[in-house]
Amino acid sequence: MKTRTLISIAAIAVSALIAAGAQAAVDEAGAKELLNENGCLNCHDVTKTKTARAYKKIAADFKGKAGAEAAITKHLTEPSTVKLGDESIDHPQVDADPAQVKNLVKWILSR
Ligand code: HEC
User: Fold this and answer.
1) What spacing in Å lies between the alpha carbon of 86 and ligand 1's midpoint?
2) For ligand 1, is residue 91 a contact (CB within 6 Å)?
3) Which of 1, 93, 110, 16 is CA-nearest to residue 56?
4) How far is residue 94 from each of residues 9, 17, 24, measured CA to CA in Å?
5) How far, in Å, CA of 24 to CA of 3, rounded?
6) Which is more confident, 8 or 81?
7) Which residue CA neighbors atom 15 of ligand 1 most closely?
8) 111: which of 31, 40, 56, 65 fits an S-S bond (Cβ 3.0–4.6 Å)?
């Protein structure tokens, strides 16, 4: 009985720690899931330039700019046109709830 109580106290402590950590840090797995689900990686790689800029390059371009998070959020949630080679294409939007989009934006900006 005693051991059991100790184990459950330990389990509660560990889950509290995990919850605190998850709040502070970017959810890497969640961000990657959205990238996969929305086909983002067809055009953007994380580090290499494909048809579109790598997320690392995008993060570097936005570094230190005020409103970076707002600008990218807008780009991913409202219709926009981008240049892909000689063509203008409608940029895809992210199909997810605002918290997930916010996490993805933070993930992109922290590459
Ligand atoms: C059909 C190809 C294509 C797909 C799919 C695509 N993008 Fe893009 N994206 C582009 C192009 C082209 C640009 C603009 C030029 C560049 O960044 O190289 C761009 C720009 C961006 C930017 C920079 C916006 C800015 O204001 O500078 C971000 C962030 C971005 N895309 C994220 C995403 C995410 C997240 C997804 C998935 C929902 C996605 N893209 C899917 C082609 C694509």
Assistant:
1) 15
2) yes
3) 110
4) 40, 30, 23
5) 32
6) 81
7) 52
8) 56
CATH numbers and ranges of domains, the chain: 28-109 (1.10.760.10)
pLDDT value at residue 45: 98
Q: What is the pLDDT of residues 48-103, one digit of tens each?
A: 999 999 999 999 999 999 999 999 999 999 999 999 989 999 999 999 999 999 99
Is residue 18 helix, strand or coil? helix
DSSP 92: P
Residue among 45, 81, 82 to mutate when testing ligand 1 (max atoms within 8 A of CB): 82
**Are the CB atoms for 94 and 35 separated by under 8 Å?**
no
